[in-house]
From TrEMBL:
Membrane topology: Multi-pass membrane protein
Subcellular localization, as worded in the UniProt entry: Endoplasmic reticulum membrane
Chain segments annotated as transmembrane: 82-100, 112-132, 169-194, 200-221, 250-270, 276-301
Organism of provenance: Dekkera bruxellensis (Brettanomyces custersii)
Descriptive protein name: Glycosylphosphatidylinositol anchor biosynthesis protein 11
Pathway where it operates: Glycolipid biosynthesis; glycosylphosphatidylinositol-anchor biosynthesis
Listed Pfam families: PIG-F
Amino acid sequence: MQKKGKKVSFSSKRKEYGSGPGSNSELVTVANEPVEKNDSSDDNSDVGGFLGEGFKGKTGRGPHRNVTDTPKPSIFTPEPSIASLPIHLLPILYFSFGPADAKGDIYGRMKRTLIILIILQCFSFYGIALTVNMKRSRWKLKQKTKNVNSKKITESRKNTHISMDNGDILGILFAFFISILASVPIYIVLILFGAPISSYTSLTFLLALHISIIATFPLLCTYRVASSDFHYCWVNLLTFQVDKFYKNQIYMMAVGAMVGCWLGVIPIPLDWDRPWQAWPITLLVGTYVGATVGNLIGYFAGRFL
């Protein structure tokens, strides 16, 4: 006669099996005794999920979720860095639209300022600093993921893995060209928000170029097109689904540029009759100041919060 499986009492065996409410301890038998079978499909799935028959939790056929399943990670956030501070923006703005040059050709000044901005932002220290900080931050994140329980890696060893290569230079150039193309949708957004359509077209497009170089280029250097998570990152960036966005120095720079440009509209309709109220000087000033303030907020929030 076949020996009938012994059913373990939930109350008496709770300590032995470490069970809690809702667990499968009622179906577990003592040593070397078979598991009690039941015709119910729910009981069979519970036994399979607990004992590993077919690993139903992994295949998704049972109600149990695999413990190794992790939620989709948030987008990469670079570490706050002094090298990523846009210290060149306010000097460019002052020497181009300061009191010494309050009057004059607005189009010529904006074009001259744009050339200086492109040189300093894209082809000088700032683009290289953004790229190096991005690589260093990603490397640290990768090491932290691999060595959760290991000792902390020394800074000297980390720095040996960080260097610029030809791919990084091409990435900066590609980010620059994408930023130029991104000025077209930014120009359309400016028109939709009330920018003049029939007049000041060239000035509005120059404003869009300034905004794109200031806001879009650093983001493209940080979240590169060649990275595997590019689409996922940019969907989250454009839809403002960024975890702890106030700690993201580069993202806050872009947000600050947009907010500053929007606030720059306020002085235009006032009847002060000042030369700096001409279109689009106040919006341009708001973009430069807002980007600097936003970057500083992201830097200090990432350091101290």
